[in-house]
Structures are given as C-alpha cells and as structure tokens.
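User: quick one - fold this with adenosine monophosphate bound?
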Amino acid sequence: MSKVMAVNAGSSSLKYKLYDMPEEKVICSGMADKIGHDDAKFILKYNGEKIENTLPILDHTKAVALLLEALTKYGVVDSLDEIECVGHRVVQGGKYFSKSAEFDADTEHKIDILTPLDPLHAQAHLLGYRAFRDALPKVPAIAVFDTAFHQTMTEEDYLFPIPYEYSRDFDCRRYGAHGTSHNYLAIKGEEYGAKRIISCHIGSGSSLAAINNGKCVATSMGLTPLGGVMMGTRTGDMDPSVMDYLATCTGKDVHELYDIFNKKSGFLGVSGISNDTRDVEEADLGGNKQAHIASLLFARRVADYIGSYFVRLGGADLIIFSAGIGENSPYYRELILRDVEEALGLSIDYELNKTVRGKEVMISKPDSKVKVAVIPTDEEVMIARDCYKRIKEGKI
Ligand code: AMP
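Assistant: Sure. Structure tokens for the protein plus adenosine monophosphate:
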C-alpha cells in the first residue's frame, strides 16, 4: 500500500486528500480556507470526525505546516515518511504538458511562464508546490494538468479564426479546462460500454467535452475558463464585438469589462440574484422573471453544445451530467434535456431524475437512443492514480 496526497492549491485555499493506493481509499481530507487572513479555517476530516480550527493562516507555508502537524498529532500517519508522493492539481499546462509531469524546477518554470494564460490559479499552484517541497524535501511531487486531457484535439478544433501568426507566436488557442474531470468521466463512461461520450461538467465553472474512444476531440472552454457555456459568474461564448460595443456604451476599459465578464456575469449577472443555482432556481420557481431567463439561457447554451458535440461525434452513446449542478440539480438537468430530447431521440425518466442527487444513476429509459447518466466526478482520485502509477513504474 502507498500513501499519496492529492492537493488543490488556490489563491486563498488549499484542499487535500490523503489516499491509500491502489485501493483508492480516502484516509483523510480537508482544507485550509481564507489563507492570508487572521480568521482562516483549518479543517481535517478523519475517521468520521471533523476537526475544525479558526486561526491565522497567513500563507500556504503555514497551511502545509498545519496539515503535516495534524497528520501526526491525530494519528493519521505514524510518520510523515509514509507519504510517498504529493500530486498537485494545475489548471493550465499550455502546450507543454499533454500528461502529468514530475514537479521539478523545469515544470515550475513552465507553469510560471504560463501565468498570463491562468492569472487566477498559476501562482497559487506554485505556492502550494513550494510549501510541500520545502516541508517534505525528500517526497517526490507531480503536477496533474486540467488541460492535459484536451491536448488530443486537432487544429480545427483548437485554433481560433484569428490571424495565424497570433496562434503561432503567442500560443493563442483553445486549451480547455476540467480535463481531469472529463478524463475521469470518460473512464466511468466506458464502464457502460460507451465509446462516444458527451460529458457535461456543470458547476460554478462549466464545460462540456466530446470524447471518442477515451480521447477528447472537442471541449467548450477556450483560451481560458471564460469560454464555452454560461457559468456562475462567467459569460461563456459571446460575439467578440460585445467587448468593443460595451466599452463605447459604458466608458469602461477592456480590463474592467473582462473582469465583469469573468466575475459579474453568468447566473449572477443575468438573474441579479446569485451565482449559485440553488438561489436562482428558488427565485425562478418563485416567479422571478430574471431568474427564469437566467435558467433558460444556461440550459439553452448547454443544450446547444450537446447538439453540436452529437454532430461532432457522429452520434453519441452516453451523455453524462456531473459537478455541482449536473450531480445535484434535477431542475437544470430537465431544462437541458427537454431542449435536446426530440432531436437526439432521448427517452428520459423524469420522475427518476427528480430523485437523483449526488449519486451515480442512469436517468434514461431503456428505449432511449442515447443513454443519459448522472455520474459524480472525482478529480482527486485521478491525481492519486497518477501519483501511484509513477511510484509503480519507479519513475519517482
Ligand atoms: P462545483 O463548482 O462543481 O462545486 O459546483 C458548485 C455549484 O453547483 C454551486 O455554485 C451551485 O450553483 C451548484 N449546486 C451545488 N449543489 C446544488 C444543489 N443541491 N442544487 C442545485 N445546484 C447546486
């Protein structure tokens, strides 16, 4: 048995799960939240108990120190030497990474120069990596990239129709995101005998992927996670001239508008209520017009991608709903499915759909031309699997 740690470091949080591999058993999990603040939280879930402390955690180094101290203090491990590998989630791997890589100085440098493509996460990932490297200098680390799964796309799927030299000289192209999740869902989909899969990872950030024989052929997010379908606070795809037009109308500059497209649009911007679909759904069902149009807009955009990926794949064997909304919201699943059911020959058990939250269930009826399933995603286990694979191959 090997103990491996899966880590997801954000700018103000550090989430972790310690696994026993190859059993894929979660030994403990938790997070440090509000890093940088005096009232930060450290949470450890172990043996059915939740330990939670509020205290100052001013940086990622302190968060990692608290975690490692807690592991021995609460008897999760006898010694930190038991940890054989630390796997870090990294959102943007650019053109450099089509699979996981050893997290060494070269990987660190490449992630650093990719920062303009992921200003929200890249430096936070590096802070998380450096904190573990300094605390556990003998333990190897790997980087697992959200973009890696999408590197199998061909040029006609990933290039933008801009002057070619911009794509060539600035690597300006579609990279996609949520690849680790789509990869997990592709593997789960194969358990149903599906070869052509449309996976819908729809949560606060949302993306769809068209998967053929385990490989991604198309995905909805673009250069950054702003592209694709509408999301909690992000616009998704729009006519690019919206930027220029609104700059003229509002007097705001490109950077201000870009920020609004990222942080104040989507469900939040259209509904004027919340970025969280639980709130929007409640307001929608209570008769709020803006909330209702936000729901319809979201469903239509997801449905449009499903339709286009159905064509892209030459048909589909399985549509998967996953992530926060996909796993937990019968309402949004139904809105989306009603939009595509006729064209795709779907037969959905909507009564069953109403009962499905956070568990794996086939919600299509046996006569449906395309199967439709709700499958909870698991990005952390993919990180743990990559760590274990490298340990077994003796690569680290
Ligand atoms: P994620 O980013 O995958 O963690 O998804 C988080 C989002 O999923 C939340 O912001 C909500 O919009 C949505 N969500 C989570 N739980 C539910 C639920 N029970 N019903 C509806 N939407 C939910």
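One thing worth noting: The mean pLDDT is 96.
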